[in-house]
Give the backbone structure.
Amino acid sequence: MTDQKNHSVVITGASRGIGRRIAQAFARETEYALLLIARTKSDLKDTQTLCNNIGDNKVVIVPCDAAKPESVAKLKLPKDFPPPKIIVNNAGSFLLKKLEKTSFKEFDQQIRANLYSAVNITQRFLDDLKSKSNSLIVNICSVGAVEGLKDSGAYSASKHALLGYTRSLRQELLETEVGVTAINLGQTQSTSWEGSLIDRDLLIDPDDVANIILNLTRLSPRTVIEEILVKPQYGRVPPM
C-alpha cells in the first residue's frame, strides 16, 4: 500500500454520521491521506481525532460550506499534502416536508446542499483526479433519486438532480481514467434521524456503506460500478 501515501481522499460531510464512518474506514484500511470537509470545525476535529487513533494517515480538516462555490474556490491543500485520487461527495441535507408546504428558500437549500456541494468539490479537484491513474468520484445519491418521495419531495428532486449530474459526468469522463459511481442509498443510520421514532436497528449500517466505498476503490482499472442501489434488508422502515 506504499503508493497510497502519494494520494489523498476527499470526503465531504465528514464531521459526523456516514461521512465520519467513511473517514474512519479509510484510516483503518488504507494509507491514503485524508482531506475532511464539513461546515463545523469542532465536529471535524472529533473525526480527525478518531481517525488518528485508528491509523497513521495524514488527516487534514477544512471547515468549508461545499455548497458555496466561493468557499470551495478558496480551498487550498496544505504544503506537502498529496493531491486527491478519490472524492467521496457525501455532504447533504434531508428535509422532511410535503412539497405544498415547502418554501422556495427550503427548496433552494436542498438543491444547494445535495447538488451544488458535489458539483463544487468535483470541479475544484477534477484536474487532480485526471492526472492520476484509476481515480474515482463517488457521489452519495439516494433511493429518492430514482423514485418520488411523498413526504420529502424537495429532497427527492435534489437527489434526482445529483444522479443526473453523476450520470452525465460519467459520460463526459469515459475517455479518461476517472471512474464515477452513484450510490443510491436507502434509509441509513445517521444524524438525520435524530428526534425521530424510527427503529434505528432496521436502518442500513453506515459501516456497510463505508465498506462498499472501500471496495469500489479496489477494483481494477478495467472496471467501474456506475450505480449501486442499497436498501434496508426488510424494506422501507416506518414511520417514514
Remarks:
- The chain has a mean pLDDT of 95.
- The radius of gyration is 17 Å.
- The longest helix spans residues 104-130.
